[in-house]
Specification:
Blueprint: E1 6-10, E2 31-32, E3 35-36, H1 37-47, E4 52-57, H2 62-67, H3 72-78, H4 88-96, E5 98-103, H5 110-116, H6 118-121, E6 126-129, E7 133-136, H7 144-155, E8 158-164, E9 174-182, E10 185-193, E11 204-212, H8 216-221, H9 233-243, E12 246-250, E13 254-257, H10 261-276
Parallel strand pairs: 1-4, 1-6, 4-5, 8-12
Antiparallel strand pairs: 2-3, 6-11, 7-13, 8-11, 9-10, 9-11, 10-12
Length: about 280
Amino acid sequence: MTSVRKCLFPAAGYGTRFLPATKSIPKEMLPIVNKPLIQYGVEEALQAGMRDIAIVTGKGKQAIEDLFDRNPVLERAVAGSDKETLLADTNRLIETCTFSYTRQKAMRGLGDAILTGEPLIGDLPFGVVLADDLCIGNEKGEGVLKQMAALFEKHHCSIVAVEEVAPEETHKYGVIAGIEVEPGLYEVREMVEKPAPDEAPSNLAIIGRYILTPDIFELLRRTPPGKGGEVQITDALREQARAGRVLAWRFQGRRFDCGSVPGFVEATNHFYRLRFGNG
C-alpha cells in the first residue's frame, strides 16, 4: 500500500434542507463566515497529504469548479487592496492541489457517488470527505483526515470516522459495533444503516470522513440498493469487514452537521467567534 494521496468529494446532492438557497447554489458552496464548506474540506485533505482532489458533481454544480480555478479579472480588481488577502487561501489550494471532476448520473446514494468516482481514483487507497460534515481537529491542530491517514499508514485497511451520538439520533447515521483494539480505535464487527434506537448495535455513528482501500469499488458494484433505493457505502463496508478488516476511529476534535440548519448556524457562530472574537 502507498500513502493516501487522493481524496474524493461526493458533491452531487441537492441540499434540499437549504431550499430555496440551494436551488441555485450548491450546498457545498454555502459559506461558513466567508469560506465555502467544500474549501474547509479540501484544506483538511491537503493537511493530511492528499493533494489530488476528485469531485463527483451533478447538475448545477459549476460554482465548485469555478471556486478552484483562477479568476484573473477578479484578482486584478482586488489587487493592492485589503481584499487581496481574502483570495490567498483559495489560490494556495489551486496551486498546490490538482482537481478533477466527474458527474453522478442519478442520485442513487453515497455508495453510488463513490463508485462514480472510481475513474478519478484508480487502484489506490483514497480519502472521502462529505463537505457538509465540517470538522475541526484535535488540540495539536491535526484534522480528522490527518489522524486517519496516520492510522492507515500503520494498519493499511479501510477506516471510518465515528463519534458518539444520542440513542435517539442513530436513525440518521450508519452505526458500528466493534472491539476496541487501541484507545478510540475499533475493529468493526457490524454496521447498520440508519437503525432505530432499539436496533442500533451501539451509539458510535459514522460521520463524513473515510479512508477506503480500492477493493471497495468492486464491493460497491455488487451491493444492491438498500434503504430508499440507494446504494449504501455502509453495506459495502460491512462486506469488507467480514472479508478482511475495517477500523473505526473515534476522532479527536469536533464535528458540525452543516447539512442541517441548526448545525450550520452553530458552525457559523463558532467560526465567527474564532475569527472576530465574542464581539
